[in-house]
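Predict the 3D structure for this chain.
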Amino acid sequence: MADDGVKERPAIVVRELRRRFGKQQVLDGVNLDCPRQQITTIVGPSGCGKTVLLKHLNLLLRPDSGRIVIDGVEVTRLGSRAIDQVREKFGMLFQAGALFDSMSVFDNVAFPLVEKTSLTREQIAARVFEILRQVGLEGMEHKYPSELSGGMQKRTALARALVRRPSILMLDEPTTGHGPTRTTAIHQLVHDTQQRFGLSAVVVSHDVPQVFEVSDRVAFMHLGKIEVAGTVAEVMSSNNENFSRFLAGRASGDEERPASQMIAVGR
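Done. Predicted structure below.
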């Protein structure tokens, strides 16, 4: 019964989260549940606070008020050592990949294990080769990022995010800079990876509505708040006017982002 309770409990719970930068109220009472072993995608116009929210979820920023609960642990008031322990649960895929140009694929993926664990060289090598195989980079370990295609660079960054076997994967605009074909491939890679490893994934994305095809749940953010959240079908059938305008703007390639909103909330 205890195990069932854990499975039913969301991986991440956010309640009334607020954060101000100077005069800018970037997060204004965010409420969000990210179910376990599902992909939750956060969307919204530029300037609504998506990336700032993600930085709170991965504990890079602390809120002014509100609560974040990760795997049943209230993290917003934890000390630095306890926060480091919670971070062990995370894998993070940054927007640009953030690979080290001077390191091979092998060394890039091994880096978190070398820096953060006491595994032996043999154990590290075994873990790295296994994860490279699972993301389709077998035989690429000696190449450098400059020798890889954009898609392979993204796979390398994903392998590095997964090598410590996290239970939660966070992705910030994983398809930025890629065309439609590569974007679809990256979405499928994220979906397949989440399924294979049973991860709880949180994705910040601008690829609307394409990203909905691999999302279990969607949260629409506007002016520092989550205005609509639910399954893809529930959100798509919502009568929220801000979401309808946002969706129409994305479909036309002309995302609505008034200057007043950009000033008010930042990204």
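The radius of gyration is 19 Å.
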